[in-house]
Amino acid sequence: MISNVNGLTIDGSGGLIDGYGSAWWACKSCPRPSVLIINSCNSVSVTNLNMINSPKSHIHVNGCEGATFSHINISAPGDSPNTDGFDISTSKNIMIEDSTIATGDDCIAISGGSSYINVTGIACGPGHGISIGSLGKKFDTVQEVYVRNCSFIRTTNGARIKTFPNQAVEVSDVTYRGIHGTSLDGRAITLDCGESGCYGIVLDQINIVSCLTGKSASCFCNNAHGTATATNPNCTCLLP
Predict the structure, then answer these.
(1) For each successive 10 residues of the chain (240 residues), what is the average pLDDT?
(2) CA distance linking residue 60 with residue 90, whole number of Å
(3) What is the pTM of this model?
(4) Which residues are catalytic?
C-alpha cells in the first residue's frame, strides 16, 4: 500500500509485477490482497505498468484526488475470481487512459463517493466490462463519469450500473460514448439503478454485438433516466 503521498510518480517501463494469484483464487473465503493500493494520495501519475495475476483487484484507488493512469497492461485468466483491473472508491478527478485490461471481473469498477472519473482508450476483455457499482451497501453517490472510445472484447456485461435493491444511492451524469465490441452472452448494457434511479445517463455511438450465433445483444434498464443515440443494442428502456 502507498498511502498519504502527494505528487507520486510511478513509471514501470521494462518491468512486470506478478501477483501469483493462482495460489489464492481457490480459497474464496480467504482475505486476498490487491497488488497495488494507492490510498489518500493526490496528484498521482502511473505509467507503463504491466501487471498479471493479482489475488484480488490489481489496482485499488481509494480516497485520492487527481490521479492519471496511462499505458497500463493488466492480465489475469477469465475465470479468476474478483480480479478487477481497477477498483476506484471515494476518489475524484481520476483518469485511466490508453490501457489494456483482461481479467476475471470488472476491467474498471467505480464505487461510491467517486466523481469526475474519465476513462478513455481502454481495450477491455475478457472480463465483466466497465462498471459503476456495486452500490448500496451504504448510502452511495457517484457523479460525473465519462467512458469514451473504449472496446469490449467478449465481456459478460459491457457497460453497467449495478445497485443493491431497496438501498439509497445517487448516480448522475454518466456518459458512455464511442464504445464498440462484443458481448460474451449478449448482455451488452445493464443500467440497474434501483428505487432512487440514475439521472443524466448518456449513451452515444455504441455498437456492441453478441458473440452468440443467432442471438442479439440486449440492453436492460431499471429506473435509469437519460438518452441513447446511435446505440446498438437499442436502449428504448431509458426513461426521460
Answers:
(1) 96 93 92 97 97 98 98 97 97 98 97 97 96 91 98 94 88 98 94 93 97 92 97 97
(2) 11
(3) 0.96
(4) 105, 128
